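Q: I'm writing up a methods section and want to include an example of the input and output format. Could you take the sequence below and give the corresponding predicted structure tokens, formatted cleanly so I can copy it straight into the document?
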Amino acid sequence: MRKMTYRRINKPSEIIRTIMLLPALVVLIILIILRPNPSYPLWAIIIGAGSIISYLGIMTYFCIKQKCYVQLARTYATIFIAIAGFLMIRYNN
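A: Here is the clean output for your methods example:
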């Protein structure tokens, strides 16, 4: 069986990637604390979605440029599973 090796993404750095996702994390924590009913505030949707979309856009650009498609697929799968999990927890209560 062939061992899969992953390429290291050179740009952007881990610090920049973390900073790009930080607004989404802050919004998520605020929403967990406030528990808005029945829907999310518009500002939370805009900030969270903007943060995640910009992160996925930058990662898509650099992964395609550096030909590291497996990491790109894993990144998309992780983000979508996290969003689906959050929504299932949110609307299950």
